């Protein structure tokens, strides 16, 4: 979200440079179609100049025919007039959940929005549409923005609220987007979770009234509920069938999505920043730009929606989405806070021996007055702990170089332990209520990123690490606390707090990216507490969960995979769970591979397997990072989970298969049906990454047609002694 005065020179320049293809006043009942490759949202400007959504579905061949859609706005009664509004105002004729609610400069709390003009800009794949709405009685404008990614069937929508009145306007609600669907029934697939239990899905039919998905946690905002969801129309969509909407708010703070099934059995979806404790005052002559709301509609099931989203993310959102990633060895679970230079020197040797690209030094390397020997002290004091690291980080970076590996480091720069020099020096930088007792989450408090001085401090934490250690190759950015006692000691109006915190964070991240555009950074939040597409513009990957039990990860990574591409998923092999190393490693290979184990403690066979896995991974990672992902067997539906990554030309693929039920006699009873192959091509199937001393039970060098594999399939022979089986697919003609 951006807040600014709109008569600034930069906006004028932008307008001058914009290639405006179409703009102007329209005659009555004009249709504005928003079309992607396969779908369309059709908007209608009514005779009353209200902008309504009249269609949401498959694209028509002839765009003139959207005007023929039988829509309820045509059966208008006195209370249906604003039901399908494209941005529902409050306080005037609307009777339902509004997208916007405000008080004008003269104290009047009503808003009416009527169409003024629209501007279309068309390019090859990405076009944009801006629709200007205005209150007929007040100088208050709302601009609806649509960014349309044609081949991906993805749309980003947001709004600008512009105060041209003579005094202050107070915004009580300011959603990014307002969608409207007609259908026989709607099924919401939502997510919930907690630490180590991220991305648990629940699906239910929406009943009349409002269902709200939201967060009020401030930082680590997605800990209990992420901002992603799906809605199936008419009946629950499957992987390959059904009409389904995937949607998400691109915002790393409090969000709110209302899904309202109305009296006409239609669904209104309104999503944006959570207005909880966040009324926003717009000074005269200023405007507010809301965050983007992202959505993609698929009429061929969830698989298509997720593949579109992955490709969109890699091309347009995720930092370095088309690039490579570094495999790594992390020391968190092997040492926790207990390490020194000698121990790290051994781990650097292990990094090299394992064959991964980088060593990642985790929490515990800093603070002297209150050493960081546990999570109770030191956060905020970002100088090397002299006892543990007498020669500093730079000597470790050098040591890494000598071992021909790269070096990365953990930070949690937004946070502070009360036991720290930072807290003693700058108590006014800390988020806390002046009149109330401090209340901690993991023994720490949040720094006040609404304060520009704190923004500079956080930037400098990163900047000085790079200045002192130019060889530093990777950052893990953690964020372990939520916000209690929300209060900034420098903000004049506390109702800006939650919004300005996130804005402050983005300012810091943007500044880091300006100076260090490509260095890989992991978005961690004690797990996946902060994964969203606004944050992922600054990060190359995220940490899905501290729960690395591979069995749990199969389910979790499955759910994340609907929304985020595998290249962004940091998966580490650890000692969590009861599964053998092969199972643990294979699961971690389904994203960006890392290790967090005591390498020197591995027996000979395990060590040789781990090394071999890194090599195998390097051969197949292009498909995992850039290929199309097909979910073949859902772990929630049976005893076997199966996931395919296929190169985009369908010439190579890799299928990961697991036994997820350890009850007696469970195995892959049926063949796995593949997807995305060329029916007329022949494919060779080869089991890879076998554990030393084991042999494949699959037929060797057998060729199958794509047609056969997509109709009859093949059985990976997953059993209680072959709990994890990876099969490479190679086109041979
Ligand atoms: C939480 C992260 O998720 C872990 O991986 C680790 O970095 C710890 N924080 C360190 O405190």
List keywords for this structure.
single chain; 733 residues; Beta-galactosidase, Chain A, domain 5; Immunoglobulin-like; 38 strands; 20% helix; binds (2R,3S,4R,5S)-2-(hydroxymethyl)piperidine-3,4,5-triol
Can you summarize this structure?
The protein is α+β, with helices and mostly antiparallel strands and 733 residues long.
The average pLDDT value, as a whole number, equals 95
CATH architecture of the domain at 24-317: Distorted Sandwich
The CATH topology of the domain at 24-317 comes to Beta-galactosidase, Chain A, domain 5
Query: Percent helix among the residues?
Result: 10-25%
Top-tier CATH class of the domain at 24-317: Mainly Beta
Structural class: alpha+beta
Radius of gyration: 27 Å
Low-confidence stretches: 7-26
Quick one: CATH superfamily of the domain at 24-317? alpha-galactosidase from lactobacil brevis
Instruction: Compute the number of helices.
Output: 12
Distance between the termini: 51 Å
> Which range does the strand content fall in?
25-35%
Instruction: Give a quick account of the main beta sheet: strands, pairing sense, barrel closure.
Output: 12 strands, antiparallel
Shape: globular
Hetero groups: (2R,3S,4R,5S)-2-(hydroxymethyl)piperidine-3,4,5-triol
How would you sum up this structure, described in words?
This protein is of the alpha+beta class. Among the domains are: 24-317, alpha-galactosidase from lactobacil brevis (Beta-galactosidase, Chain A, domain 5); 630-731, Golgi alpha-mannosidase II (Immunoglobulin-like), CATH 2.60.40. Helices cover 20% and strands 29% of the residues. The strands form seven sheets. Strands 1, 2, 7, 8, 9, 10, 13, 14, 16, 17, 21 and 22 form a twelve-stranded antiparallel sheet that branches. Strand 13 and strand 14 (200-205) form a beta hairpin. Helix 7 (452-468) runs parallel beside helix 8. It starts with a strand and ends with a strand. Residues 332, 362-363, 410, 478, 480, 524, 526-527, 543, 546 line the site of (2R,3S,4R,5S)-2-(hydroxymethyl)piperidine-3,4,5-triol.
């Amino acid at each position: 979200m951006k807040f600014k005065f709109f008569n600034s020179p930069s906006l004028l320049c932008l307008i001058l440079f914009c290639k405006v293809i179409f703009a102007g006043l329209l005659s009555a009942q004009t249709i504005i179609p928003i079309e992607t490759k396969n779908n369309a949202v059709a908007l209608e400007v009514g005779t009353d100049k209200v902008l309504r959504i009249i269609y949401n579905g498959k694209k028509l061949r002839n765009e003139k025919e959207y005007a023929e859609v039988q829509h309820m706005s045509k059966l208008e009664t006195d209370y249906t007039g604003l039901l399908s509004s494209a941005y529902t105002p409050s306080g005037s004729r609307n009777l339902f959940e509004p997208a916007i609610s405000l008080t004008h400069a003269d104290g009047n709390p009503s808003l009416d929005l009527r169409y003024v003009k629209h501007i279309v800009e068309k390019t090859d794949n990405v076009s944009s549409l801006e629709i200007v709405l205005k209150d007929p009685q007040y100088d208050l404008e709302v601009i609806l923005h649509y960014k349309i990614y044609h081949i991906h069937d993805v749309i980003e929508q947001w709004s600008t609220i512009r105060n041209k009145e003579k005094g202050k306007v107070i915004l009580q609600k300011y959603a990014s987007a307002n969608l409207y669907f007609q259908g026989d029934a709607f099924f919401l697939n939502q997510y919930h979770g907690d630490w180590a239990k991220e991305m648990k899905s629940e699906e239910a039919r929406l009943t009349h009234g409002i269902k709200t998905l939201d967060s009020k946690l401030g930082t680590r905002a997605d800990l209990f509920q992420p901002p992603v969801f799906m809605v199936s129309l008419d009946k629950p969509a499957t992987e390959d069938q059904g009409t389904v909407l995937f949607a998400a708010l691109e915002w790393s703070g409090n969000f709110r999505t209302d899904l309202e099934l109305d009296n006409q059995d239609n669904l209104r979806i309104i999503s944006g920043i959570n207005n909880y404790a966040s009324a926003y005052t717009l000074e005269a002559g200023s405007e507010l730009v809301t965050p983007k709301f992202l959505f993609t509609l698929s009429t061929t099931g969830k698989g298509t929606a997720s593949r579109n989203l992955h490709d969109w993310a890699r091309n347009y959102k995720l930092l370095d989405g088309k690039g490579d990633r570094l495999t790594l060895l992390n020391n968190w679970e092997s040492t926790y806070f207990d390490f020194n230079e000698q121990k790290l020197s051994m781990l650097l040797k292990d990094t090299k021996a394992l064959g991964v690209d980088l060593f990642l030094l985790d929490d515990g390397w800093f603070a002297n007055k209150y050493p960081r020997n546990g999570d109770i002290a030191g956060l905020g004091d970002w100088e090397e702990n002299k006892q543990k690291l007498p020669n500093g980080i730079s000597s470790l970076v050098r040591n890494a170089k000598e071992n021909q590996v790269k070096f990365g480091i953990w930070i949690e720069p937004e946070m502070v332990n009360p036991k720290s020099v930072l807290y003693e020096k700058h108590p006014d930088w800390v988020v806390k209520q002046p009149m109330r007792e401090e209340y901690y989450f993991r023994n720490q408090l949040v720094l006040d990123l609404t304060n520009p001085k704190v923004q500079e401090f956080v930037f400098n934490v990163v900047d000085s690490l790079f200045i002192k250690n130019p060889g530093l190759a990777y950052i893990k950015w953690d964020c372990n606390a939520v916000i209690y006692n929300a209060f900034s000691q420098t903000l004049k109006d506390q109702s800006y707090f939650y919004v300005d915190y996130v804005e402050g964070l983005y300012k810091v991240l943007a500044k880091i990216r300006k100076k260090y555009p490509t260095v890989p950074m992991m978005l961690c939040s004690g797990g996946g507490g902060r994964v969203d597409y606004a944050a992922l513009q600054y990060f190359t990957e995220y940490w899905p969960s501290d729960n690395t039990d591979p069995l749990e990860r199969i389910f979790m990574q499955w759910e994340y995979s609907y929304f985020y591409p595998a290249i962004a998923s940091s998966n580490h092999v650890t000692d969590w769970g009861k599964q053998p190393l092969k199972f643990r490693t294979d699961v971690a290979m389904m994203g960006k591979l890392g290790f967090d184990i005591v390498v020197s403690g591995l027996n000979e066979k395990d060590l040789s397997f781990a090394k071999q896995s890194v090599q195998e991974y390097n051969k197949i990672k292009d498909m995992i990072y850039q290929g199309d992902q097909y979910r073949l067997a859902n772990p929630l539906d049976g005893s076997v989970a199966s996931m395919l990554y296929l190169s985009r030309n369908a010439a190579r693929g890799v299928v990961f298969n697991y036994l997820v039920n350890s009850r007696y006699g469970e195995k892959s009873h049926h063949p796995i049906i593949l997807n995305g192959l060329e029916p007329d091509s022949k494919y060779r199937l080869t089991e890879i990454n076998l554990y030393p001393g084991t042999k494949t039970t699959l037929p060797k060098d057998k060729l199958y047609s794509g047609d056969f594999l997509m109709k009859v399939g093949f059985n990976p022979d997953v059993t209680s002694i072959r709990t994890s089986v990876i099969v490479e697919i190679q086109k041979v003609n």
